[in-house]
TrEMBL record:
GO terms for molecular function: asparagine-tRNA ligase activity; ATP binding; nucleic acid binding. Belongs to the class-II aminoacyl-tRNA synthetase family. GO terms for biological process: asparaginyl-tRNA aminoacylation. The gene is NARS2. Gene3D superfamilies: Bira Bifunctional Protein, Domain 2, Nucleic acid-binding proteins. Keywords: Aminoacyl-tRNA synthetase, ATP-binding, Ligase, Mitochondrion, Nucleotide-binding, Protein biosynthesis, Transit peptide. This is asparagine--tRNA ligase.
Length: 473
C-alpha cells in the first residue's frame, strides 16, 4: 500500500507527471519566496493585452486583491475574457511593481469556463452601485463589494462563536420550526405541506398543531439556560413584516444569548457591549482590506467613528428619560412622543443624535409595550418591565433584550390574561422546577454588519435577501 505522505508523491515522480503546487490567490500573493511550478484557479477580473505582454488579474474569492498574471501574448485565446474561469500554471516570482508582492509568469492558461461577456451584467473595471448588483443575486458575489462583504460576514460569524465559546457559553441549535410565537407580535410565517403532500396525508396539520418558522430562539434558549447556565444560538429567524424598509428582512440571522443567575439588566448590557466590541475588533484586525473598501468607498467617516466607539462605554438612558428628551426636542415628529407609545424610527434617530451619535441603551420600557416574558420592575402597578434596546447610529435598534419573569405567580397571571396559559404550560413548568433569575438578548446580525460597515440597505449585507414581494432564487 502507498503511504499517505511519501507514496503518492513517489508515484508521481516515477510516472514523471509534472504537478504544480495548487495555490489560492491569497496564498500566492502572500508567498515569501518564488516558486517554480504553481497552479492558480479563479475568475478573470481583467485582461489587458499589449504587443509584448498579456496581463490578467485572477480572483478566486480568497482575498479582495487579485493575482497579476503576466503571459506571452501568444497564450491569449478568444475565450480568455473578463469573467471566464481559468487555470493558470507557471512560475511565481517577486513582482517588480510596488503595488503587489508576487505575480505569476504564465506558462499555460486553460480557460475552464468561458463567459459570454456581452450578456454578463458585470463589466470590467466598473464600480457597480450596490443597487445595480442587487438585481443579480446569482452573480453579485463576483463583485468586489459583495465579495468583501461576504468574507467579513464569514469572519464575523466565526468571531461571534469564538466570543461565546471563550466565555463559557454552550451553543444550542434552537429549532427553526416551532409551535409558539415568542414575541407575540403576530409576524409569523405558518408552515404548510405542499398540496401533493396534503392529499396523501390524513391530517390537515402535519404536526397536529399549527407550526411556524421561528421569530426567535429565546424560549428554547431559556429551557437550556435552566441546565447549562450560559447558552447562545445563532441562526436564521423569520418575520412576516410587511416592510420593504432598509432595515427589515423576512429572513435574517439573530445572535441570542441567555444567562441564568442574572438579576441585573446591567449584566445583560455588559454582554451585549462586550460582544459588539470584541467581534468588531476581531473583524477589523482580520479583514483589514475588505473593511477598508467599505470605509473608503461606502461610508468614509465610519472608520474613525467606530474606533472612538470601541474606546468608550455605551450610554444608558431610561425609556422615561428618552420620552422627555423627545418631548423637548426642537423638531416636530410625525409620531408625537408620548409615554406609553413605542419609539419610532424617527425617535430612535433623534435620541442617538442627541447622545452624540454613539450607541445608546434604552432601559425599562412600559409594561404594555413589551412581550409577556419580560420581568415586571414593580415600580407601580404594571408600570415598566426590565427591558433593554440598544440603539445605534444609522440603523436604530440593533439589540433587544430583557430580564425574564422568573416568578411563577407573576407569569401565571400575565399568561392567563392573554389566554396563553395552556400553550405555555411547559414555560410555566420552568418556573416550577428550579427557577432562577435570568435574562438575555438578541442581536440582528445583518443590522450589526450594516452598522459596522456603514451600509445603508440591509439587502446588501446578506447573500440572498428575502423581503415582502421578493424571494429571488
Ligand atoms: O427585538 P427583537 O424582536 O428581540 C427578540 O426577538 C428577543 N426574543 C431576543 C432575545 O431576547 N433573545 O429582535 C432582536 C433583534 C432586533 O433588535 C433587530 O436587530 C433584529 O433582531 N431584527 C431584525 N433584523 C432584520 N429584519 C427584521 N425584520 C428584524 N426584526 C428584528
Ligand atoms: Mg425589539
Amino acid at each position: 500500500m502507498l503511504g499517505a505522505r511519501g507514496g503518492w508523491r513517489a508515484l508521481r515522480r516515477c510516472a514523471s507527471l509534472p504537478r504544480a503546487v495548487r495555490l489560492r490567490v491569497r496564498e500566492a500573493l502572500g508567498a515569501r519566496e518564488a516558486a517554480e511550478a504553481v497552479r492558480v484557479q479563479g475568475w478573470v477580473r481583467s485582461v489587458r493585452s499589449q504587443k509584448e505582454v498579456l496581463f490578467l488579474h485572477i480572483n478566486d474569492g480568497s482575498s479582495l486583491e487579485s493575482l497579476q498574471v503576466v503571459a506571452d501574448p501568444s497564450l491569449e485565446t478568444r475565450d480568455l475574457t473578463f469573467g471566464s474561469a481559468v487555470e493558470v500554471q507557471g512560475k511565481l516570482v517577486k513582482s517588480p511593481h510596488r503595488m503587489q508582492n508576487m505575480e505569476l509568469q504564465a506558462e499555460t492558461i486553460h480557460v475552464v469556463g468561458p463567459c459570454d461577456i456581452w450578456s454578463f451584467p458585470l463589466k470590467m473595471k466598473e464600480r457597480h452601485p450596490l443597487e445595480y448588483v442587487r438585481q443579480f443575486p446569482h452573480l453579485r458575489c463576483r463583485n468586489n463589494t459583495l465579495g468583501a462583504l461576504l468574507r467579513i460576514r464569514s469572519e464575523a460569524t466565526a468571531g461571534i462563536h469564538s466570543f461565546f465559546q471563550d466565555n463559557g457559553y454552550v451553543h444550542i441549535h434552537t429549532p427553526i420550526i416551532t409551535s409558539n410565537d415568542c414575541e407575540g407580535a403576530g409576524e409569523l410565517f405558518q408552515i404548510e405541506t405542499s398540496r401533493e403532500a396534503k392529499e396523501s396525508a390524513e391530517n390537515t396539520h402535519f404536526f397536529n398543531v399549527p407550526a411556524f418558522l421561528t421569530v426567535s430562539g429565546q424560549l428554547h434558549l431559556e429551557v437550556m439556560a435552566g441546565a447549562f447556565t450560559h447558552v447562545f444560538t445563532f441562526g436564521p429567524t423569520f418575520r412576516a413584516e410587511n416592510s420593504q424598509s432598509r432595515r427589515h428582512l423576512a429572513e435574517f440571522y439573530m445572535v441570542e444569548a441567555e444567562l441564568s443567575f442574572t438579576e441585573n439588566l446591567q449584566d445583560i448590557m455588559q454582554v451585549m457591549e462586550d460582544l459588539f466590541k470584541t467581534v468588531t475588533s476581531t473583524v477589523l484586525s482580520k479583514c483589514p482590506r475588505d473593511i477598508e473598501l467599505f470605509h473608503k468607498y461606502i461610508a468614509p467617516a465610519q472608520k474613525g467613528r467606530l474606533e472612538q466607539i470601541l474606546k468608550h462605554k455605551f450610554m444608558i438612558i431610561s425609556y422615561s428619560e428618552a420620552v422627555e428628551i423627545l418631548k423637548q426636542a426642537p423638531q416636530t415628529f410625525t409620531f408625537k412622543p408620548e409615554w406609553g407609545c413605542d419609539l419610532q424610527t424617527e425617535h430612535e434617530k433623534y435620541l442617538v443624535k442627541h447622545c452624540g451619535e454613539v450607541p445608546v441603551f434604552v432601559v425599562n420600557y412600559p409594561y404594555d409595550l413589551k412581550p409577556f416574558y419580560m420581568r415586571d420592575n414593580e415600580d407601580g402597578p404594571e408600570h415598566t418591565v426590565a427591558a433593554v434596546d440598544l440603539l445605534v447610529p444609522g440603523v436604530g435598534e440593533l439589540c433587544g433584550g430583557s430580564l425574564r419573569e422568573e416568578r411563577l405567580p407573576f407569569l401565571e397571571s400575565r399568561l392567563q390574561r392573554l389566554g396563553l396559559t395552556d400553550a405555555y404550560q411547559w414555560y410555566l413548568d420552568l418556573r416550577k422546577f428550579g427557577s432562577v433569575p435570568h435574562g438575555g438578548f438578541g442581536m440582528g446580525f445583518e443590522r450589526y454588519l450594516q452598522y459596522i460597515l456603514g451600509v445603508d440597505n440591509i439587502k446588501d449585507v446578506i447573500p440572498f435577501p428575502r423581503f415582502s414581494h421578493s424571494c429571488v432564487l
